[in-house]
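note to self — DONT lose this again. spent like an hour looking for the file last time. sequence + predicted structure for the chain T wanted, 186 res
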Amino acid sequence: MTFLSILRPAPSSMRNPLLGAALVASVLLGTGCMMSKVKTQTGLPYWPDGGNTPAARLASTTVADAGRWRMAATRWLGVPYKVGGQDRDGIDCSGFTDKVYQEVTSLGLPRTSRGQWLKGAKVSPDAIQLGDLVFFQTTGSGVSHVGVSMGGNEFAHASTTKGVMFSSLTDPYWSQRFSGARRPGR
């Protein structure tokens, strides 16, 4: 039996609805096993190609874009935090967002979180998209921390205690300190 013969209708004497359903189920289950689901530090699953759920993969027109953003951020996972750092020996939050933006868009960002806050259009919390910068007030007054939205509620950033990681905007620590979002020109 060749692959093309599978696509042709079977003679009526060979048609069996249960056999057809079993074939479809085995194909679907086999496909699911090929997807490499990974858990981030937020505990939320993701697929390296960028979809957060199978439904999002089918509905999204920006899966390739999501993959580029996620891969750029993932390359830095685990790099320790270092004030003023800009390399794999240590990086700070604005250095991290600058490196990710340069890789994905070739757009350089200002070197501080405050400078990045002043660049780009303001984005309302319910309109945050993949690649938007998300800002927080973690010390004193004003913006003091920045990350890059990975879509949904997830963002990537350089944490002062854990280095580069993924976190959730719904985490109580981050939601209480959220200052806003900006969309630099892409």
